[in-house]
Amino acid sequence: MTQYSEHLWSDEQEHTHKRIISLHDSGKGYRTIAKLLNAEGSRTAKNKEWKNSNVYAFLKR
């Protein structure tokens, strides 16, 4: 039986989440993180560019 609180993310999403946490913990802001992810060619789950609001929401999961 699966718990609703469990995250069912792909390996790529897990990697991105850890990267965002690392960048945030090092003092980077949401906009800076979004710019870095976009520069690296990373995309959101909906295949869109990162925005600061996406980074914020992703961190709160």
Number of H- or I-type helical stretches: 3
Helix content: 55-70%
Poorly predicted runs are none
Mean pLDDT: 88
Beta content: under 5%
Count of spatially separate domains? 1
Shape from CA axes?
globular
Kindly report how far apart the N and C termini lie: 21 Å
N-to-C series of helices and strands = HHH
SS elements, strand count: 0
Structural class: mainly alpha
Taking all Cα atoms into account, the compactness measure Rg is: 12 Å
Give the assembly state of these chains: single chain
What would you say this structure looks like, in words?
The protein is mainly alpha-helical. It has 3 helices and no strands. Helix 2 packs across helix 3 (52-60). The two termini are 21 Å apart. It has helices at residues 11-25, 30-39, 52-60. It has one domain (11-60).
What's the gist of this structure?
It is built from three helices and no strands.
SSE layout and pairings?
Blueprint: H1 11-25, H2 30-39, H3 52-60
Helix pairs in contact: 2-3
List the main descriptive attributes of the protein structure presented here:
mainly alpha; single chain; globular; 61 residues
